[in-house]
């Protein structure tokens, strides 16, 4: 607002002090009008005390920014969710219809353009009315009401509890004196149009609807600039008692109030007799548009929205405390542009819910998450459960895709999706995919020494106090024999992966997983609090550790991106109502694997995805991936990708690691299940619809064996088996029980 100076108001001059004295002496004598106290009780003493108190009151109005809604947008600018404590859309005075300006002045302060902030005539009128009739009148000018609203806004923006804020109905003389002095100061500083603009933007109309633009949109679905006479009269009438004059809940009372405003507009010659007659005969004519607040109200991408809110409230640049950051989200007018592709999101939600409905008696969860391998941008994040705090198995606020710090469940046993890490370590150690290994061995005695250079002894043992060693099982018979590394990975043979691990350094496998940020290289023992290297527990190579779908997607996206891992990124930019920009995560990528090593791995993973999962239905698009199943199919996975999109599908229990065998799921009883039962079909149904949005390239040809291999990969998949290893997570090698404990609670 532009400053307007007038020497008439300058209390530093003699004239100003005299005017202030008489003005405040009179004011103190009649302030009782607003307090419903007999004037004779306060006229003398209050006037004297009031002058002294008035001189000591602040003369400068502290104006915090108006609370404005924050918006979360997808990558194309579509609004996903709106957050507000006060739904408000500030507009300039020229964007408010003249009808609305006339209506509010007529009903709230008809002498607005004549007084100087405090209206002695209005105070006297209210005093006489309140002393001589059973009805009560207020005497606050629009400027005083503006001041009162600014004080309330300032307190709310600083986190003051509402019980500590002085509202209109509980003011004492000191409050009214302060309001009056500040109103005079505001009139010195701002023009009448500026004050009217400020008032119409700050005032409460109903519930959480603040400001005339939001009110016009809320009740008539039009901008404030288009408000006609009767619409303006209705809105102007609401501000006196927003809860009572609610056109949705109390239409008759609101209509009566509207017609009173129309009569005042006629008295003040703001409308003609003909306009009055036409307006007063008209219905309220509501066209209500509800703008609900928060992630629960979002039409889609609710869980992704929740993830975004966690990123904001965990980021110190938005405030010193969580309360400050939350207040910034709900009051700061943030515009948060995200990386989400709504085309993919809607498809992901459809398929995640179709695979297993949210209210299915099995209570199984499903999730799909897609990343752009070249940027790490989160393109979709979906699950079957409904994002809500309500009771019932169909509802949850946990995000199955993310970690606990961002509202996630903390992950699930990765099963065979971990096996490529062993193969990568094998290749990095100078070996080949066609190398032959002995997959017949299914028992590693207590004394067997697993090479682990990161441990103090340089090795670890597979000790099991009951069995005397580690029993390694396969899901299907007939695979305990010599085979190539490629064959073992293709069919996801446990004994093959363990045979590889027994010949190389476990710490190299641990390091691959750490470079890909699939899991940290150490974990804290729940029993002792001691930091333990994952390599100390050989079964981790079969996926005993919990991993999140997001971390898994980022790891497999690295395979799609020639060994370059990009940090998952969900926010592109953030600005606030004041025009400030905040630091958003930049694209952050790092080469963590040798391109040739990844090319050779992709040679096998492309066969898994193309021949076993897609069954040659996506021949035109190069795809690759790995299945995964934990013990009892408590967690089933498919992590698949093209060079354009990396997507992880997960289906399983979010409440325990108990087997799902024998359960009725989606109307059918399953005595056996693995990744081919739910996760892989869900991935395929989704990717077939969206893979074309992001063009793909070939992965490159893998190195070829110098001669024929002993176990060539078949071109078809037996219908009787997906080849994925249920029973992959033999979690206890007898050395420690940490791996079991780490998976005890998925949230």
From TrEMBL:
It holds the Pfam family Transgly. Residues 370-643 form the Penicillin-binding protein transpeptidase domain. It catalyses: [GlcNAc-(1->4)-Mur2Ac(oyl-L-Ala-gamma-D-Glu-L-Lys-D-Ala-D-Ala)](n)-di-trans,octa-cis-undecaprenyl diphosphate + beta-D-GlcNAc-(1->4)-Mur2Ac(oyl-L-Ala-gamma-D-Glu-L-Lys-D-Ala-D-Ala)-di-trans,octa-cis-undecaprenyl diphosphate = [GlcNAc-(1->4)-Mur2Ac(oyl-L-Ala-gamma-D-Glu-L-Lys-D-Ala-D-Ala)](n+1)-di-trans,octa-cis-undecaprenyl diphosphate + di-trans,octa-cis-undecaprenyl diphosphate + H(+); Preferential cleavage: (Ac)2-L-Lys-D-Ala-|-D-Ala. Also transpeptidation of peptidyl-alanyl moieties that are N-acyl substituents of D-alanine. GO terms for molecular function: penicillin binding; peptidoglycan glycosyltransferase activity; serine-type D-Ala-D-Ala carboxypeptidase activity. Residues 719-733 have a biased composition (Polar residues). Residues 698-747 are annotated as: Disordered. It comes from the Bacteria. In the C-terminal section; belongs to the transpeptidase family. In the N-terminal section; belongs to the glycosyltransferase 51 family. This is Membrane peptidoglycan carboxypeptidase. It comes from Neomicrococcus aestuarii. The lineage of its organism: Bacteria, Bacillati, Actinomycetota, Actinomycetes, Micrococcales.
